[in-house]
């Protein structure tokens, strides 16, 4: 029951972050800022793996929950004191910075309702949901089954080596720093659609190549490095489809992230189950079949995103804004007439 509640509370984090970036991230720095926030997740995982192992070994297993729980409470305190919904409410930034942010943002004020029908029937939103499912499926397959794969094929134990366990997350951290800045730089040279498509599809193709290469080599260390690099390449995809929701409709980015994340949760649940069914005996043939299926899922996501995605502001986002403004004007006129 506690784990269910934990998952429910964690589920709102990414939609809330997208809602926050709607008011804070200028278009010219959008990808860099979003990926910087995601970078914190990777470093948090690295610290948790290293510190958690030390706490279990030298203190007790209960101390892991107490220590990280205390850290969470401290973070909540500073988050509540520091973070503001909008730049206008933040007294800690300069007037020049505030004006720069406000002038660089898309118009996101005044929407009373989200255009649900348009969102649910949008090919671009569908494409983002599909690639998120594919990405989570692939990442989970590599991250959760890599230790078993190394043990069964190379008789190599990952658990004693904290460095090997954290390698995928450290590699992702480096990739995030590069992908964010480069995507924003290229946005000034190419269309937003081209940038989002190229980064997402390059990410998926790179993951397929590195994952299959890691499955074919006959050395545990080389396999670990190649698989870690495959996981790191998801950073390129995040610079594409995750940020893409802010391009489509800044006003509805939060709810769209919630929908896309919900689809990804299906992969979270089903990927370990299917992986277990496909590798009952942990033979080389079973593992190769699993990696080939995962590669196929990546390629399907790549194909769908390339042909269905768009990086431009959607007409239904603009239309909804105009409808809201017209509705407000009509209400004011009716009120004036009654007076």
TrEMBL record:
Protein keywords: Membrane, Symport, Transmembrane, Transmembrane helix, Transport
PANTHER family linked to this entry: GH23975P, SOLUTE CARRIER FAMILY 17
Bilayer topology annotation: Multi-pass membrane protein
Originating species: Culex pipiens
MF terms (GO), sorted A to Z: symporter activity
Subcellular locations according to the entry: Membrane
Domain named Major facilitator superfamily (MFS) profile: residues: 1-313
Gene Ontology terms: cellular component: membrane
UniProt keyword Transport, yes or no: yes
Entry's Gene Ontology BP terms: monoatomic anion transport
Transmembrane segments annotated in the record for this chain: 63-80, 118-138, 158-179, 199-218, 255-278, 290-308
Protein name: Vesicular glutamate transporter 1
Gene3D superfamilies (UniProt xref): MFS general substrate transporter like domains (1.20.1250.20)
Record's keyword annotation contains Protease: no
């Amino acid at each position: 029951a506690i784990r269910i509640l934990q998952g429910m509370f964690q589920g709102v984090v990414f939609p809330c972050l997208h809602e926050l970036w709607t008011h804070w991230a200028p278009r010219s720095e959008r990808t860099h800022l979003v990926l910087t926030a995601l970078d914190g997740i990777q470093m948090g995982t690295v610290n948790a793996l290293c510190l958690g192992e030390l706490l279990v070994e030298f203190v007790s297993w209960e101390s892991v929950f107490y220590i990280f729980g205390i850290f969470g409470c401290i973070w909540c305190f500073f988050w509540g004191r520091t973070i503001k919904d909008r730049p206008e409410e933040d007294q800690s930034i300069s007037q020049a910075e505030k004006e720069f942010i406000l002038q660089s943002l898309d118009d996101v004020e005044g929407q009373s309702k989200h255009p649900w029908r348009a969102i649910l029937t949008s090919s671009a939103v569908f494409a983002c949901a599909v690639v998120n499912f594919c990405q989570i499926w692939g990442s989970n397959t590599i991250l959760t089954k890599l230790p078993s794969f190394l043990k069964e094929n190379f008789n190599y134990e990952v658990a004693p080596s904290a460095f090997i366990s954290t390698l995928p997350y450290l590699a992702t951290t480096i990739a995030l720093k590069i992908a964010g800045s480069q995507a924003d730089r290229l946005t000034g040279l190419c269309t937003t659609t081209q940038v989002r498509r190229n980064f997402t599809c390059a990410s998926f193709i790179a993951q397929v190549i590195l994952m299959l290469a890691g499955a074919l080599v006959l050395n545990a260390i080389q396999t670990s490095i190649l698989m870690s690099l495959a996981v790191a390449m998801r950073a390129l995809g995040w610079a594409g489809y995750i940020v893409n929701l802010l391009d489509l409709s800044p006003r509805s980015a939060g709810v769209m992230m919630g929908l896309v994340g919900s689809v990804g949760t299906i992969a979270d649940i089903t990927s370990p189950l299917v992986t277990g069914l496909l590798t009952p005996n942990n033979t080389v043939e079973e593992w190769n079949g699993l990696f080939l299926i995962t590669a196929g899922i990546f390629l399907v996501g790549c194909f769908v995103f390339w042909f269905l995605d768009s990086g431009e502001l959607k007409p239904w986002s603009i239309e909804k804004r105009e409808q809201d403004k017209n509705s407000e004007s009509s209400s004011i006129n009716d009120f004036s007439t009654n007076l």
